[in-house]
UniProtKB/TrEMBL annotation:
Gene3D superfamilies: 3.30.1380.10. Disulfide bonds join C56-C285, C201-C249, C230-C237. This is Murein endopeptidase. Metallo peptidase. MEROPS family M74. It comes from Aureimonas jatrophae. The keyword Aminoacyl-tRNA synthetase does not apply. GO terms for biological process: proteolysis. SUPFAM superfamilies: Hedgehog/DD-peptidase (SSF55166).
Length: 342
């Protein structure tokens, strides 16, 4: 079946872009369209390339759709791919949460696209296979159908009027779950809604070191976002700056008193950031787009389970690599005009 069999839709798109005389080039096409057209991961050794919000993924692995302590949600989005070390980390968090946090099992949301890169909608990060969303909804005691996984309501735990926690929807096990994830040594950051961080600060007690990793960020009111550190020895992965010291609980007022205030009358109109093009990504990402599909790669994590990565994959140094889906629900929460780093 030749080259077209290797890439399917993405091969047709890339071939069209390389044609001369059409006025369209690879450099003029938003990277989100190129990576969004990729249905399967690439060949090559696993590598997280670039920064979390500006990079790609080589040799990604699909999270198995079902495990003893997890299920993968939103299979139609085809975003359940990650670096094998991240897959191992998430599976370990799911086991620890079941054993220590009283959580039956995890529902995994978006991770990365098959080859990472910018997404057509929903996320600025999740590009290098080291980010994943975990829902604050416990796994049911049965296996969900694909249709249920795509349509199941995922309620917010935040009151949209006060922007603080809705105590009626909060469970102590949620705090235990987030703490379990934050205490993983290889976790870099965890993003939660400021109202969730506020609650965690109140219930943490004396053991507060883990709160340093938990960073407030709007948009995380029905799930939390786990970010893994660059692997030891990785030269292709750009690490994030340190979170510094302290638990961050003394800096939450800004999120409620300042972040969502209307702009001053003389403020410049908000402009949506321009799309990212291939020239803004690491050069290795162009090669990732051209690589053949990985042997036996699945189209969706729900299509066919794949083997779990060996435990050694977690800590091993990483080799160096020379129609749009609907956006995830926001729970009706307002968003600030800009979101500071963290």
């Amino acid at each position: 079946m030749g080259q077209m069999a290797k890439h399917g839709r993405s091969a047709a798109l890339l071939a069209a872009l390389f044609l001369t005389g059409t006025g369209t080039t690879l450099a003029q096409t938003p990277a989100k369209e190129l990576f969004g057209a990729e249905a399967r991961p690439s060949e090559g050794p696993p590598a997280a390339i670039g920064f979390y919000s500006r990079g790609c993924l080589q040799g990604g692995m699909a999270m198995p759709a079902d495990g003893p302590t997890w299920q993968v949600m939103k299979p139609s989005r085809n975003r359940a791919f990650a670096h094998p070390a991240m897959i191992a980390l998430l599976q370990r968090i799911s086991r620890d949460a079941a054993a220590e946090a009283g959580w039956r099992g995890l529902l995994f949301g978006d991770m990365a696209q098959p080859r990472g890169g910018p997404m057509r909608d929903g996320h600025a990060s999740h590009q290098i296979g080291l980010d994943a969303d975990i829902y604050l909804t416990e796994m049911p005691n049965r296996r969900l159908s694909n249709a249920e996984r795509d349509s199941m309501p995922l309620p917010s735990v935040i009151d949209p009027k006060t922007r603080h926690l809705d105590e009626r929807r909060w469970r102590p096990q949620m705090a235990a779950l987030i703490k379990t994830a934050a205490e993983e040594p290889q976790v870099e950051r965890i993003f939660v809604h400021p109202g969730i961080k506020e609650k965690l600060c109140k219930v943490a007690g004396r053991d507060r070191a883990w709160l340093n990793k938990v960073r407030p960020m709007y948009g995380h009111d029905y799930h939390f976002h786990v970010r893994m550190k660059c692997l030891p020895g990785s030269k292709s992965c750009e690490p994030q700056e340190s979170t510094g010291k302290g638990d961050g609980c003394d800096k939450l007022d800004w999120w409620f008193d300042v972040a969502l205030q209307p702009p001053p009358p003389n403020a410049k109109p908000y402009k949506k950031p321009p799309p990212i093009f291939m020239t803004a990504l690491p050069k290795a990402c162009a090669a990732v787009l051209k690589e053949p599909d990985a042997p036996g790669a699945t189209v969706s994590a729900a299509a066919r389970p794949v083997a779990s990565p060996p435990a050694a994959a977690y800590a091993a140094p990483e080799p160096v690599a020379a129609p749009p889906t609907a956006a995830a629900p926001s729970g009706g929460m307002p968003m600030p005009r800009f979101r500071p780093g963290g």
